[in-house]
Amino acid sequence: MSSIIRIQDLRFTEYVKPDEIAVRVSAIAKALDERFESVDSINTIITLKGAFMFAADLIRQMHTPMFIDMVKASSYKGGVTSTGTVTLSGFTEEYEGKHILIIEDIIDSGRTIHALLDVLKDKNIASCTITALCSKPSQHDIEISQEFVGFELPPVFIVGYGLDYREMGRGLPGIWRCID
Ligand code: IMP
Ligand code: MG
Predict the structure, then answer these.
(1) Number of the ligand 1 atom closest to the C-alpha atom of 114
(2) Which end of the chain is more exposed for a tag (fewer CB within 10 A), N or C?
(3) Residue of 46, 76, 175 best suited for mutating to test ligand 1, as the one with most atoms within 8 Å of CB
(4) 25 CA distance to ligand 2 centroid (A)?
(5) What is the pLDDT of residues 93-140, one digit of tens each?
(6) Domains within the chain, CATH numbers bracketed
C-alpha cells in the first residue's frame, strides 16, 4: 500500500526509498574516489540548501582528501517551477589550480549549474566534476556523467532527502513525488 503525505496544498507519494538512495550514494562515492584517484585533494562546492543531505552521506563514504565549501544557490522562489534568475552567495575558497567537485541536489533547468560554471570559468581551475542526486535530463542540456547521477527523473516535482516544497519536506529520508 502506498502512503501519501500532504505538504501545504500538495500531495506526495513515496518515489525512491531510503535504502535505494543509499545504494546509489555508495556507488557514486566509489566512482568519484576512482575519478580522483590520482589527485592529492579536491575542493567540493556543495549547493545549499538542497544538497546538504546528499553531500553529508556522499562525503562520509569517500576517501579522497577534500576541502569543503558551501554556496547558497536559489532559483526556486518557493514554488514548483524554477525562476529565471539564479543567485549564488558564499564563495570562500581560492579555486585556482584546484580539482572541483560540485555537489548538487537536482539538476532541473540547469540554470544553477550554468551559473556555477560561469563563476568558475575564469578561475583557472584544474578540473570540474559534477555530481547530483537527481537530474531531469529532458529539462536541460548539461553533460554529466551518468555514474555521478543518483537518479534520472522525468519532469516530476519531488521533495525529501534535502529537497523542499516551500521549505518543507527536506528531512524526509526518502524521495517523494508530487501527485497533484
Ligand atoms: P535548476 O537551476 O533549474 O537546475 O534548478 C536547480 C534547483 O532547483 C535545485 O538545486 C533545487 O534546489 C530546485 N529544484 C529543482 N527541481 C526540484 C524538485 O523537483 N523539487 C525541489 N526542488 C527542486
Ligand atoms: Mg539546489
Answers:
(1) 2
(2) N
(3) 76
(4) 17
(5) 789 999 999 999 999 999 999 999 999 998 999 999 999 999 999 998
(6) 20-154 (3.40.50.2020)
